[in-house]
Amino acid sequence: MIATLGVLLAGGLARRMGGGDKPLKEIAGRSILDRVIERLAPQCEGLILNANGDPMRFAFTGLTVVPDSVPGFAGPLAGILAALDWAAENHPEIRWVVSAAADSPFLPRDYVTRLHAAREAAGTPLACAESGGQAHPVNGLWAVSLREDLRHALVVEDMRKIDCWTARHGVARAAWPATPIDPFFNANRPEDLAEAERLIALHGDA
Fold this sequence. Notes:
Mean pLDDT: 91
Low-confidence stretches: 13-18
Distance between the termini: 22 Å
Radius of gyration: 16 Å
Oligomer: single chain
CATH architecture: Alpha-Beta Complex
Strand order of the largest sheet: 5-4-1-6-8-7-9
């Protein structure tokens, strides 16, 4: 297994959920965050959480909470940069960071290995997930060596769109089927919580 640091991105404002922290919402008696941690942690050398505001609300996870270093809710790229910086400062031997949306309760258990395989096959420094033909740029694999380039894009160029930055370097796609459950289903709205419970009732919690 290639040494990879995992970061769960929980820095969003959750407007469609009516505010608050989406990952702390419960599905079938467990928080979404618990579910994502249980899936991603075994695939990584370590796991951190990117979130802004009071970190104590995530204290129950035992994870290090790393806030954005770029002010003003600059979007997921800011969370990815924060994770790349944290990896470089705390685990300089780790060359890769994998990111996942913290509100994705069905994240694949082969997520990291599949992303690395896609990256290696394509010869690119980046990879992102795809399901049912749709790319999920937030769910991706990032080379720590690109952190200064990303910082320049965010701070100097005011770039916010993930696809614009990854296109500069080359990004491979690792594809998963979207049925019976899309592994990158995310809970953005209250009705998504009900849908996730329905899917677990139908297909189990594999």
